[in-house]
Task: inverse folding
């Protein structure tokens, strides 16, 4: 059963959430029931596919072992190369899933592996930093298999998540969570099953893919961009709403991305949890290391290379097809030229001008849509 | 100590606004971008031996000069 895809899933999910709501209204802790429900939902999602649930269990055990052992190792050894070993080991299942096909190995993977890998790597990096010194088995499991976000995020952070699970909400506080959660679910369902569905059926699907013309390309570009937003933002809202019902404030993923005033602003509004994850764990680490060790002549070179690497990896994370990588590099390039331009005197003069702001927003919107056109694979057909 | 922190912040942000207005939101006003934030962390560590990890604090805890100073003081 695919999460959030049909009425049956929602029906079962709401039945399973009723005890959680009762616990919340009684001012009681929902954590253990939430873990139980997550296991049940996992069984519903993966129960039919032996390959998937076996790989999921293997993945879970590998990550548990890595995290627990690194917590111990780190108390004695602070070497960076141990960190690298841990990160690569943690990513090994994901790398196998994505690249194993190319080497004609047996295809293995499970829905959500890309997202779960992020959670594991975040924990490992923060163990290295010393921000995490201990994780208990129940908390680790709940964070990893928390069902609302398992298939496609939003990507939460372990310390934030665990704080939420141990918070004792009063009935009054829970009622607010419940209300907000239900409202987000309604919004999400509207976005995904009404608006995105409508765009797909009455606009997107009407555009022929066999022959490309400029006009058709434009139509496809805008239709796909709106479809992608309403579909993904809709899913995210439902996932976040369900989290709230379980007493957890999963972070938002979208914040009116199409009114972004520039590309940098866009990445603070689109797929935010992914963007911030890449910013915090890849861009920041790379640039910090290069500044401390003086790898480059000036800090801007470090920053720009950092952006290209970060966004390139972001593209690659979506898939190994070359249009995904091009999508990533395209955004990396846009960020670099935006940053360079914003350092110039000319920008400082115009940046508060209304006409400039409007033009910048419209240009950004179109650049973003073009990026989605690349992402859709339309140009590669 | 407070003065030294503000000196670093002023240097990294390239404006003395951070000293004039101690409650200005550094991120929202575009005074401190991702690169600036990294420089800030590096300078705090190298010059004042104050180590703040990139994901240690929520940005909302350190997004104004005053909040940053309070955060650092509370660390000790």
Result:
């Amino acid at each position: 059963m695919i999460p959030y895809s049909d009425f049956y899933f929602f029906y079962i999910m709401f039945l399973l959430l009723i005890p959680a709501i009762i616990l919340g209204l009684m001012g009681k802790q929902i954590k253990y029931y939430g873990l139980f429900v997550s296991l049940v939902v996992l069984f519903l999602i993966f129960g039919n596919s032996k390959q998937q649930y076996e790989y999921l269990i293997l993945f879970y055990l590998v990550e548990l072992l890595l995290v627990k052992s690194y917590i111990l190792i780190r108390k004695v050894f602070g070497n960076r190369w141990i960190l690298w070993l841990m990160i690569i080991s943690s990513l090994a299942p994901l790398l196998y899933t994505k690249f194993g096909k190319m080497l004609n190995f047996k295809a293995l993977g499970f829905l959500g592996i890309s997202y779960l890998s992020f959670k594991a790597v975040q924990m490992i990096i923060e163990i290295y930093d010393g921000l995490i010194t201990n994780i208990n088995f129940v908390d680790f499991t709940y964070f990893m298999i928390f069902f609302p976000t398992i298939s496609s995020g939003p990507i939460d952070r372990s310390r934030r998540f665990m704080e939420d699970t141990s918070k004792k909400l009063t009935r009054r506080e829970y009622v607010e969570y419940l209300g907000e959660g239900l409202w987000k679910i309604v919004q999400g369902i509207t976005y995904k099953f009404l608006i995105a569905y409508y765009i797909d059926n009455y606009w997107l699907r009407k555009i022929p893919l066999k022959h490309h013309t400029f006009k058709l390309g434009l139509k496809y570009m805008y239709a796909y961009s709106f479809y992608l937003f309403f579909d993904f933002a809709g899913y995210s809202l439902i996932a976040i709403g369900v989290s709230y019902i379980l007493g957890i404030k999963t972070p938002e993923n979208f914040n009116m991305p199409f009114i972004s005033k520039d590309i940098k602003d866009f990445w603070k509004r689109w797929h935010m949890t992914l963007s911030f994850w890449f910013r915090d764990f890849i861009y920041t680490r790379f640039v910090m290391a290069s500044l401390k060790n003086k790898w480059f002549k000036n800090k801007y070179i470090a920053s720009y290379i950092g952006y290209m690497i970060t966004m390139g990896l972001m593209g690659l994370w979506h898939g190994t097809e070359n249009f995904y990588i091009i999508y990533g590099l395209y955004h990396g390039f846009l960020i670099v030229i935006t940053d360079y331009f914003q350092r110039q005197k000319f920008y400082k003069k115009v940046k508060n001008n209304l006409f400039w702001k409007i033009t910048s927003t419209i240009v950004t919107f179109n650049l973003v849509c073009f990026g989605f056109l690349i992402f859709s694979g339309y140009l590669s057909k | 100590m407070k003065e030294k922190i503000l000196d670093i912040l002023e240097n990294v942000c390239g404006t003395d606004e951070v000293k004039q207005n101690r409650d200005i939101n550094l991120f929202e006003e575009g005074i401190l971008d991702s690169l600036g934030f990294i420089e800030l962390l590096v300078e705090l560590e190298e010059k004042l031996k104050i180590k703040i990890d990139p994901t240690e604090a929520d940005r909302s805890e350190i997004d104004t000069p005053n909040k940053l100073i309070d955060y650092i003081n509370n660390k000790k």
About this structure: Residues 42 and 147 of chain A are 7 Å apart (CA to CA). The radius of gyration of chain A is 22 Å. Chain A touches chain B at residues 122, 125-126, 129-131, 157, 264, 279-281, 283-285, 287-288, 291-292, 299-300, 303, 339 (CB under 8 Å). The mean pLDDT of chain A is 94.
